[in-house]
Specification:
This protein is an alpha+beta fold. The protein folds into 2 domains: about 1-65, no CATH class; about 70-100, no CATH class. Helix content is about 25%, strand content about 45%. It contains 1 helix and 4 strands. The chain has one helix spanning about 75-100; strands at about 5-15, 15-30, 35-50, 55-65. Strands 1-2-3-4 form a 4-stranded antiparallel β-sheet, with no helix packed on it. The longest helix is centred in the C-terminal third of the chain and has 23 residues, at about 75-100. The protein is globular. The relative contact order is 0.11.
Length: about 100
């Protein structure tokens, strides 16, 4: 890619949880081209469905080691608005995938 690089630093598996540590290096186009490294940790929580297969039921990310904004980590109304925005965008993305648009 000419706009960025993904580097996986580690992947850890547990019985109901997968953690992936990776770095996303984005190219910033300004008068001087430079890479901006963003360390991330992706968490996948798994649950068995009725057929016995494991499915992802929750996914969240931490950028630069910081937890996501929610009503417990920041001013409650701001955190609740942030949670609802994440939920709304997740529903839109899931509907687009189900419809075959993405």
């Amino acid at each position: 890619m000419d706009w960025g690089v993904f580097v996986v630093r580690g992947e850890h598996h547990g019985p109901s949880h997968i953690v992936m540590d990776w770095t996303q290096e984005l190219m910033i186009s300004s008068p001087v081209r430079m890479l901006l490294p963003i360390p991330m940790r992706s968490n996948f929580l798994l649950r068995k469905d009725s057929s016995g297969r494991e499915r992802i039921y929750r996914f969240y990310e931490e950028w630069w080691g910081n937890p996501q904004l929610n009503r417990h980590t920041t001013f409650a109304p701001l955190g609740m608005a942030h949670e609802q925005l994440r939920w709304f965008h997740g529903q839109l993305l899931a509907a687009a995938v189900r419809a075959g648009i993405i």
